[in-house]
Amino acid sequence: MEQYLAPSLGPRLAGTLTGGFPVLVMAGLVITIDGPAASGKSTVAQRLAEKLDAAFLDTGAMYRAVTIAAKCAGVDMNDEQELLAVMEKSKFKFLAEADPCLRRRKLVPVETGMRAFVNGIDVTEQIRQPDITASARYIAAAPKVRAKLVQMQREFAARHKKVVTEGRDQGTVAFPDADMKFYLTAALPERARRRQAELRAKGCSQSLEQVRQAIEQRDKSDEHRTVGPLRPAGDAIILDTTNLSIDEVVGKALRYVKQKCLKK
Ligand code: DC
């Protein structure tokens, strides 16, 4: 498996934060944001990373990219050995919005999440299609595949001074010692409404009921798998985003980070 999680523009040395925040005492800062589908965690993580001048890691894009690689290879999605073999043979690349490579290659940064490549092919749009979303659960349920992805996530974090990472198991499995952990949640009807709007914006029309059912199904498989199940870490701050705007959630999260991780 060749993998490349491109380094972001994050500073290598301690420095002042953007937006007039105090100086960060840097022994490496890892902030995890976990939560169910459409809870707003990708947008919040990306904005928080921008505010903190930190690298952003969208781990869902990694699961989605492996899903597309496996589907293209036509392997049995229930066969972990076959999935591992596909991972070994494939070359994955993920670029965050702030990455200089994106600008060099004149690629448009994605609004939320990371730009993903499999064997040199840009799959950023395809990995968000409903069939890939639905099939990602096979990848998510394969323990050895998860272990490889967690390893890639830790390697990414090790290359950066500051990281905001989002997914399902970032605070529980990938980074149990993270400096700050958040768990974002929102009521199911609100998450369905948000996801439907997102899909509509991409020209994909699904009824609210269809979207709600798909999310409910994902919640179930995320919560009940034996490895890396979706659950808040014991020391995570739980933020219910149902009635909050993105700015309000980011503002709240920033205040927690400031209180806990930044020296006054
Ligand atoms: O966050 P997302 O919708 O892009 O996630 C895509 C899939 O990957 C979803 O089925 C959950 C899974 N996933 C996971 O199991 N662990 C993660 N850390 C991130 C995503």
Walk me through what this model shows.
The protein is of the alpha/beta class. The protein has a single domain (2-9, 17-259), classed as Rossmann fold, CATH 3.40.50.300. The chain has helices at residues 41-52, 59-73, 80-89, 100-104, 130-140, 143-158, 170-174, 188-201, 208-224, 246-261, and strands at residues 2-5, 29-34, 55-58, 91-95, 115-118, 121-122, 162-167, 180-185, 237-240. The protein has a 5-stranded parallel beta sheet with strand order 3-7-2-8-9, with helices on both faces. The radius of gyration is 18 Å and the shape is globular. Residues 7-27 and 106-110 have low confidence and may be disordered.
Question: How helical, in percent, are the residues?
Answer: 40-55%
- What's the arrangement of strands in the largest beta sheet? 3-7-2-8-9
**Count of individual helical segments:** 10
The dominant shape is globular
Q: What CATH architecture would you give? A: 3-Layer(aba) Sandwich
The CATH class is Alpha Beta
The secondary structure category is: alpha/beta
Instruction: Assign the CATH superfamily.
Output: P-loop containing nucleotide triphosphate hydrolases
Order of helices and strands: EEHEHHEHEEHHEHEHHEH
CATH fold-level name: Rossmann fold
Question: Whole-number radius of gyration?
Answer: 18 Å
For the sheet with most strands, the description reads: 5 strands, parallel
Beta-strand content:
15-25%
Low-pLDDT segments, ≥5 res: 7-27, 106-110
**Head-to-tail CA distance between termini:** 44 Å
Bound molecules: 2'-deoxycytidine-5'-monophosphate
Mean pLDDT, to the nearest integer, reads: 85
